[in-house]
Design goal:
Elements lengths: L10 H7 L10 E5 L3 H7 L4 H22 L3 E8 L2 H4 L2 H24 L3 E5 L7 H13 L7 E8 L1 H17 L11 H6 L11 E4 L18 E4 L9 H11 L25
Parallel strand pairs: 1-2, 1-5, 2-4, 3-4, 5-6
Helix pairs in contact: 1-9, 2-3, 3-5, 3-9, 5-6
Length: about 270
Amino acid sequence: MQATVPAGLDRKEAEIYLRLDPKRLPKHIAIIMDGNGRWARRRHLPRVAGHRAGVASVRSTVETAARVGISALTLYAFSEENWKKRPKSEVDFLMGLLCRYLKQEVPTLNKNRIRLEYIGRQQELPSTVRDKMEWARQATAHNTGMVLTLALNYSARSELVDAFRSIVDMASRNGGLDHLEIDEDSVSRHLYTRHLPDPDLVVRTSGEMRLSNFLLWQLAYAEIYVTPTLWPEFRGAHLLEGIAEYQQRERRYGGLAGDHSDHHSSKPVRS
């Protein structure tokens, strides 16, 4: 019996979806959005033109993920290193682009029942940006569909530092450091992503073969899918192609072939 194609998919997306097993979709997909600068350079345009073009890719990818029933999607939007290595003019443009995106996309997020969250050191972002982020988060807070998480001013190493600081601080307020115990579960409970299951699939665009300080703890057992497609050219169909590749993999979690016991985090997406 052929699977029913979800409403809203275009022809190409529908063709790819029919090759998928709807029962084996990844619960959580993380995406490293890379290639905006190269896309612009190949067209003899300023870098900011690549960032602007990438917004359409975000919209297409987010809507397709929600339509096919992905529970959580996390996008690496702005790294902590971007503050130090990008010109101030480009950073300022990115902050303005984020605010415009949030204002424009909230109606679409609500239409698709998508709840918006953030990870990263938000306290270091400009107050005007934080205000717009909080407005958008509250505007989508009651949605019960996919959780869209934007990683903003994010660094995996900083996340681990913050997690360890939080663990120590909690211990100091609850009996002192003599009672400090650290294990994998306690670390996971203090990460920015404690409300999410660990990603099953991480997608990287533009062909680069690195994680770039993104979700280093959470991606321990994730399947990695790298596409040469530059981010401004990435669309929902590309995401579905990544899922099709994911479904061809045998996930072992350190075990042997044929051992399908699930040793990764089984945290549900909390609404």
